[in-house]
Write a structure and sequence with these properties.
The protein is an alpha+beta fold. It folds into two domains: 4-176; 247-374, 2-Layer Sandwich (Heat Shock Protein 90). The protein has 13 helices and seven strands. A hairpin with a 2-residue loop joins strand 4 (304-311) and strand 5 (314-321). Helix 3 (65-80) packs parallel to helix 7 and helix 11 (277-297) packs antiparallel against helix 13 (341-352). The longest helix has 69 residues, at 145-213. The two termini are 29 Å apart.
């Protein structure tokens, strides 16, 4: 719908309310007019033009200069008609003009369509026209204090509404661009996690095995290593997976139990731990990445333990191993080298779920990764 649509609807409502007020004054003062018939004609024109502009401005394609110029011309014409409809003595005494506040409608339209400068220009034209009414009424050029007050109010309306509308439209455009960029970044990170969990691991395996076998296999391993490095450099952006809609909850225990083996012990609560499918899948994928790190970086015979804890405020999943541990600067060095397994496959996933990851490790003491995810 956009930021402008409500503004144009508000202007249409203002025109109708101002028309009702002007009609009330015409009905009350028509007997005092120099030409009552002309007063009714002006009121009929204002009514017809209000109906037309409410329809015309609703379509963005018609909000161009022809309609804006015609709108301002009709308002100025109805304002000038006061000099022939009202008696000169009443104008001299400060009688209200025929359209009253209705003339502010075009000023607001100009402000919304072009900002404070265009709104101020329309206000000046309407203000000069209102002052001119006193010059052609037959009693001399004697605008009243009420006339000047009206000019100032119309000018302020055109300036402020135009300024606010311009700021709102620009903010909406920036927000749309930011959302677009964020969506693109989130999608890139989602793909990066998928790549890390599949392609990069295969390339790493080929590189390691090729170096062990030697000969032509070593060359193949070298090429795989180069491609791995090139691919890692492309997957360093943030993202957030798209949430599932309307799907039944998934028991996280079932997903985690599938990782149990002679080297991995999985402990879960006795009761189900239901989570939205996307949340459960992302937590399970983070656990898979943690266990894969154990297999890749720890020696043979290393054991791992997966512990699932269910809390009223969320779930806690811990992955602990009895491997050699790692230095405190290992993760930072891996990130600098483009190895983002922990940063994206674990921390990235949990962060996107609104949770946090704590990693505790020291040389010779194993590693523990604790993932805390709040319930949606």
């Amino acid at each position: 719908m956009g930021f402008e649509a409500p503004l144009w609807r508000a202007i249409a409502v203002f025109r109708i309310a101002a028309l009702v007020y002007a009609a009330t004054l015409v009905v009350r003062n028509v007997e005092e007019y120099r030409s009552p018939v002309a007063g009714w004609v002006v009121l009929a024109l204002m009514t017809a033009w209000t109906a037309y502009t409410s329809y015309a401005y609703a379509d963005p394609a018609r909000r161009g200069w022809p309609l804006l110029a015609a709108d301002l011309a009709v308002a100025a014409g109805c304002l000038l008609a006061t000099a022939w409809v009202e008696r000169p003595d009443r104008i001299f005494e400060g009688a209200p003009t025929l359209p009253m506040a209705w003339v502010a409608g075009p000023v607001l339209a100009w402000g919304v369509s072009g900002g404070k400068r265009r709104g101020s220009l329309a206000a000046v034209i309407i203000g000069v026209t209102g002052i001119t009414v006193h010059g052609i009424s037959g009693r001399g050029y004697m605008p009243t204090q009420a006339t000047f007050n009206g000019v100032v109010l119309v000018f302020m309306a055109g300036f402020v509404v135009g300024h606010v509308a311009k700021l709102g439209i620009e903010a909406e455009a920036r927000l749309a661009r930011a959302i677009e960029l964020e969506a693109a970044n989130r999608e890139r990170e989602r793909l990066a996690r998928r790549i890390h969990d599949s392609v990069l691991q295969v390339l790493t395996l080929v590189q390691r095995r090729g170096g062990e076998l030697g000969g032509e296999a070593a060359e193949l391993g070298r090429l795989a290593g180069e491609q791995e490095a090139a691919l890692r450099s492309l997957i360093g952006s943030r993202s957030e997976p798209v949430a599932d809609q309307g799907a039944a909850d998934t028991d996280l225990r079932t997903l985690l139990a599938a990782h149990a083996s002679t080297a991995v012990t999985v402990s879960t609560p006795a009761t189900p731990v239901p989570l939205p499918p996307r949340t459960a899948r992302e937590i399970d994928a983070a656990v898979v990445a943690a266990l894969d790190n154990v297999r890749r970086h720890c020696g043979p015979g290393t054991r791992a333990w997966v512990l699932l804890e269910d809390d009223p405020s969320g779930v806690i999943v811990s992955v602990r191993d009895d491997g050699p541990g790692m230095p405190t600067d290992r993760l930072a060095a891996a990130a600098e080298d483009g190895r983002l397994g922990v940063a994206q496959s674990i921390r990235g996933r949990i962060r996107d779920l609104g949770g946090r990851v704590t990693i505790v490790s020291a040389p010779g003491e194993g590693t523990e990764i604790e993932m805390v995810v709040p319930l949606p």
